[in-house]
Specification:
- It contains 18 helices and no strands.
- The protein has 449 residues and is mainly alpha-helical.
- The protein is globular and about 65 Å long.
């Protein structure tokens, strides 16, 4: 068997996996969801979802990867052989690999927006900008295929440049620098928000306790975001787990990653909304907050250009570390099944994903009228297909395979838990998580109908 790369220690694995989990969703989506769904009450529900669904499923995906010691597709085939069950399970690994590439196709375009805004902030474009001007600036960015193409290309080159260098020289070194830098920038922004922002209003918006807003929809939203925020179901965590040494505790490491992921989302929310409320802006969901509202805040505060630049660097780092993990499963499969070198595989696969990104960026301007299904654009179709179908389906099938098809002693050998903790994991993985994911699916089907 060929030599397989491995993380040097638990710390490097934690940074890499945290980098995969910490992405654009943590920066804007979680804080907004907290604010509109009951503040502290929603936080409690979200943390419960992380604990009862997210953590056990992340443990499952890591144990599958470490047990197989291969890329997701070949790894699932190996595990199916070991469990003496159908080899069709390998397509679960293949589905995860394809899902990651589809996500990167549109994720890179959004990452390009962020890179563009780093330059805009540094150039002082936000200075004294009005609401109308800020909206016009963002609309102008989306309307320019050439500008989007340029930044999409830069982001893809950044991502593939790291992946091409391999596990230790590329992924490990990049995450060892980017994740600490990400938290350092966050602490600077948080300190600044505490000094010039309205932290009391931000805290009230995010953490006021209102159980009347905890509806079934809010619970399902918390569950869905807990699942997606940990990057589960697309093979990234599985392939990272395959590089994990056997003397490292899966359970302890998973808990640390989940805590870091959740803490970052909460701290970013406080930093963002303190500035939003201090500048009398309306908090809004999604790109509107990051690319339209915040530039107004940065443009009307002391040191706004510097703080705006740092903020978009923070977002870029989060997007970059996530993007790296999206392509690694497919690269691992190519290098382990062909004679193609990692660098060549990265270039070839990078060009394919880059072309998909070109179609995505055109859906904001030249191909705006092109609809795929249910009246959705190319961008919207890829987003909905991956986030609402493929990711939860992948997580559900992984939980079922580990819980009902793998031999119990093989699972216990990887998790290395005492009897009580192992029984607790089996209950969450075999019963609670599948029921929760099925509930999300049922809700989505009701919405579609």
């Amino acid at each position: 068997m060929a030599h397989r790369s491995a993380w040097k220690n638990r710390w490097t694995f934690m940074l890499a996996t945290a980098g995969s989990a910490i992405g654009l969703g943590n920066i804007w989506k979680l804080p907004y969801m907290i604010g509109v769904n009951g503040g502290s009450a929603f936080v409690l529900v979200f943390i419960a979802c992380i604990f009862f669904v997210g953590i056990p499923l992340m443990m499952t995906e890591i144990l599958l990867g470490r047990r197989a010691q291969k890329n997701p597709l070949d790894g699932m085939a190996t595990l199916a052989n070991e469990a003496k069950t159908s080899l069709h399970w390998k397509w679960l690994g293949g589905m995860g690999m394809v899902t990651g590439l589809l996500i990167l196709g549109f994720y890179s375009v959004i990452g390009g927006w962020v890179l563009s805004y780093i330059i805009e902030a540094a150039r002082g474009v936000f200075t004294n900008v009005t609401g109308a001007q800020s909206t016009a600036n963002f609309d102008a960015l989306l309307a320019s295929p050439l500008t989007l193409l340029c930044w999409h290309t830069v982001f893809m080159v950044m991502t593939m440049g790291v992946v091409a260098r391999g596990v230790n020289s590329g992924l490990e070194k990049a995450n060892n620098i980017l994740i600490p830098a990400l938290f350092a920038i966050l602490l600077v922004l948080l300190g600044y928000s505490m000094s010039v922002g309205d932290m009391a209003a931000a805290y009230q918006f995010m953490f006021s306790l209102d159980f009347s807003k905890i509806t079934p929809v809010a619970v399902l939203s918390a569950l869905g975001h807990a699942f997606f925020s940990l990057s589960l179901g697309m093979g990234a965590v599985m392939v990272y787990g395959s590089y994990l040494k056997r003397d490292i505790s899966i359970a302890r490491t998973t808990v640390y990653i989940a805590l870091a992921d959740t803490m970052l989302g909460l701290l970013v929310g406080l930093a963002i909304y303190a500035l939003v409320f201090a500048n009398h802006l309306e908090p809004s969901a999604g790109p509107g907050l990051i690319f339209q509202s915040l530039p107004i805040a940065f443009g009307h505060m002391p040191w706004g250009n510097l703080i705006g630049t740092l903020f978009f660097m923070l977002v870029a780092f989060a997007a970059w570390t996530s993007a790296i993990s999206l392509v690694e499963p497919a690269i691992a499969w190519i290098t382990e099944n062909t004679k193609i070198k990692r660098a060549s595989a990265t270039v070839g696969l990078g060009i394919m994903v880059w072309l998909l990104g070109v179609a995505v960026l055109l859906s904001f301007n030249e191909w705006k009228g092109v609809k795929i299904v249910f009246g959705l654009s190319i961008f919207e179709t890829l987003d909905k297909l991956t986030s609402t179908i493929l990711l939860p389906l992948g997580g559900l099938l992984m939980a079922i395979f580990a819980g009902y098809w793998m031999k119990k002693d093989h699972v216990q050998d990887e998790l290395n838990l005492n009897d009580a903790h192992f029984k607790w994991w089996r209950t969450l993985n075999n019963i609670v998580a599948p029921i929760a994911i099925l509930a999300v699916f049922l809700y989505l089907f009701e919405v579609i109908k």
